[in-house]
Amino acid sequence: MRVITAFLIALSVTLGLPAQDLEVNFYEGIDLYEGIDEKFYSGSNFGVKNPIYSAYPVSGMIRHNRVDGLFLGYQEEKMDWNNANFLGIENVDLHGLIGYSVAQDQLQYSIGAEKSIGTERKWLLLGGDLHNTTSTEDYWRTGIYENALTSFATGFDYHDYYNADGYGFYAIIKPVRFIELGASYNADEFSSLDVNTEFSVISNYSSFRPNPAIDSDLEQINKQSLTLGLTINPRTVNRHSSVWSTVSAKAEIADLGGTENDFFYNKYQVEAKSYFRLDHTTLFKWRLMAGSITGEAPDFKNFALGGIGSMRAVGFKSLTGNQMVLSNLEVELGKSNSYRDGWPDLSSFYISLFLDSGTSMFNQRYLETTNPVSDFDVGFSELSHNAGIGLGFGMFRAEVAKPIAGSEGRTSFWIRFNPTF
Fold first, then answer.
1. Among residues 164, 138, 162, which one has the least CA distance to residue 150?
2. What is the annotated signal peptide range for this record (predicted)?
3. What is the pLDDT of residue 207?
4. What is the DSSP track for 283-343?
5. 390 and which of 89, 149, 314, 352 could share a cystine (Cβ 3.0–4.6 Å)?
6. Residue-level pLDDT at 228
């Protein structure tokens, strides 16, 4: 039996919609835990607000990493569906980022605008963005501000970086409250970045990794692409249901005719998250991700598993390829709280037990096909597994993970300030 079969089954899990009118109850969600990136983090979309958000640079206005050093700036977030009025024009909102990278000695920026449409309910968002700034593909592993904290304090920087110089236009539509669709056209020049600083407060324990090039053959890459996204149940957990699921899918289409792209490829990813309230003190969580890349993608676009946020007892990014499967199972034990409609209170002390399973590898058949599903070939025997236990105190969590089967790994200790998923 193949992993892809199990993944398709997971997508068909009951979505947990309440019997009451969706228009009334759908947005009555519940926060299950805290995190330093809580306002930025999304429990339903690959760690960002929606699937097309990552078509644009993912960054923060105050950060520290090994390529920017200290970065200080000001940011107004995009895709927030704000009620702002610009120059008297209703529901037009400006967004962007401007700041200075000390280590690169460079001013970076992102500037854009968006218009939300709808009277009783906003159902359409149109926007655009012009940018030249540092970005990362690793936003889903650990939050931007969480990573900045560990980088500044100890030198452990778990993101890899590149410069994105370009522009894009996007549209997000909510035909009904529990479905969100998005599309974005982007034209970018991506460039490799060097390590420019090795500063950290506790430098004796630092781990200054090289920042890998975006590709082994090219230091700059031109790409025009179309990103498509779908989310079902974007608000994650509904307080009226004991079982709740959310599904997100995105496709990055760079195999476009009539373009001068340096690489022609298509990247597909699907993520399903399910929450099962076993009783007032016990929560079962499951994240299942799968992905495939057809054609030949640059190195920084390939999948990479291992380490923080993925498989916690496997070497950091040690499993790479053009196909990927990842499963994270967690049981969290907290205290009961009558104000949460029977959901456990995980905002103070809790215990977590977890099992991480997955793999990523190269499938040569994907270099010649455009079908992301037909040649997907990962068996259960090819998965690596690790298990562990964690103790949480609000947004602070300490974890110990140990490999139990599959690819080599080692017992690992993690300090986290965000949920894993």
1. 138
2. 1-19
3. 65
4. EEEEEEEEEEEEE---GGGSEEE-STTS-TTB-TT-EEESEEEEEEEEEEE-B--GGGTT-
5. 352
6. 98
Is the full-model pTM beyond 0.70?
Answer: yes
Q: Judge whether 421 lies within some domain.
A: no
| 74 part of a folded domain | yes
**Residue pLDDT, tens place only, 388-417:** 999 999 889 999 999 998 877 899 999 999
Cα 111 to chain center, whole Å?
22
Q: What is the CATH number of the domain that holds 180?
A: 2.40.160.50
* Pairing, β 124-136 against β 161-176: antiparallel
Rg (CA), the chain: 21
pLDDT digits (tens, 9 = 90+) for 323-369: 999 999 999 999 887 666 778 888 889 999 999 999 999 999 999 98
Query: 171, 183 in Cβ contact below 8 A?
Result: yes
In a domain, residue 224? The reply is: yes
How many structural domains does the chain have? 1
pLDDT(208) > 90? no
Q: Evaluate whether residue 146 is within a structural domain.
A: yes
Question: Left, alpha or beta for 281 (phi > 0: left; psi -120 to 50: alpha)?
Answer: alpha
Q: Can you give the residue range of the structural domain that contains 287?
A: 3-416
Name, in order, each residue with C-beta under 8 angstroms of 305's C-beta and a sequence gap of 6 or more.
311, 314, 317, 318, 319, 320, 324, 326, 358, 359, 360
CB 386 within 8 A of CB 356: yes
Note the pLDDT of residue 9. 41
